[in-house]
Amino acid sequence: MSDTNHTINQIRYLKQQADEWTKRFEGQPQADHIKEAAKILKDKLKAVEEPLIVPGLKSQHQTLNYGIRLAGKLAALVPVINSADFAPTTQVHEVFTHVSRQVDAQKEALNQVVETDVSHFNDLIWAAEISPLVLKPKK
Question: CA 71 to CA 48: how far, in whole Å?
Fold first, then answer.
């Protein structure tokens, strides 16, 4: 479960950074290029995130509209396992294995996005040679 949460947090952090870089490039000649690359990156990250959780979920009641995602399914197994005085049943093991494989596939998809799209986005930022600290322009 903690590994799944770590993956979700990594996705959110990458999306946040892409937004911050987009804001940082506003008014720069490369702004449109960075904005487009950030949108593509965030779309790919969203595609990895959505099977794990429902992004932007405001309340538990909203899960009725979207269904339980993989992180929720894993979390739901914990009380089932903890409630018994005996070892988990074969069915619980099978469900855990099935859901874990799906989570692992999403982690692998995130690794692919990091290797390709995040790397490409970083290359664009480096190529822009933007200063690390800049003064705010007068209005």
Answer: 12
Looking at residue 94, its amino acid is E
Return the half-sphere exposure (C-beta side, CA atoms, 13 A cut-off) of residue 95. Answer: 16
Largest CA distance in the chain: 70
Q: 29-43: per-residue pLDDT in tens?
A: 889 999 999 999 999
Burial class (CB in 10 A: 0-12, 13-18, 19+), 107: middle
Contacts 24+ apart (CB under 8 A), 35-41: 37/120, 37/121, 37/124, 38/121, 40/117, 41/14, 41/113, 41/117, 41/118, 41/121
Q: What is the mean predicted confidence (pLDDT) over 59-86?
A: 79
